[in-house]
Amino acid sequence: MSNSFQRIGAKSNAQVGRDFENAALQFFKSQDLILKKNIKIEVGIEETPKKFHAFDLGCKEQKIIVECKSHKWTSGGNVPSAKMTVWNETMYYFAILPDNFKKIMFVLYDYNEKREETLAQYYLRTYEHLVPKTVEFWEYKEGVSAKILHPKKSF
């Protein structure tokens, strides 16, 4: 039975996510950054009791957390609005992470010809007000490289 929301050619969306996490692990390893999967960090707001939240990748000793998103535009070139909600949720978790953590949103490069922008560029243009200043937004082009889209560097 086929799921109409499943990525074409993929066994499952969960497998797509795991494969992207593995690609991210390899990318960061090539940058001499050794991360582990499923890093649990206590988070919470102000004085409320804290709870553990599992992040995709990270290193507690180096205080680095990475969330990986391999989302794409819809097959019709429309905004995958449910996925953008997931990205917003990630920004919330980044906002309540302890300040001493480096926070990286690692997303798949997916260009939309009609809109003339990638999904990450669209997200930052539309939702930048929800992105904490301390979050680095990396866009990964499979087999090529990754570049930082946020924060914008001025030279």
Automatic annotation (TrEMBL):
Highest taxon of source: Bacteria
UniProt protein name: Restriction endonuclease
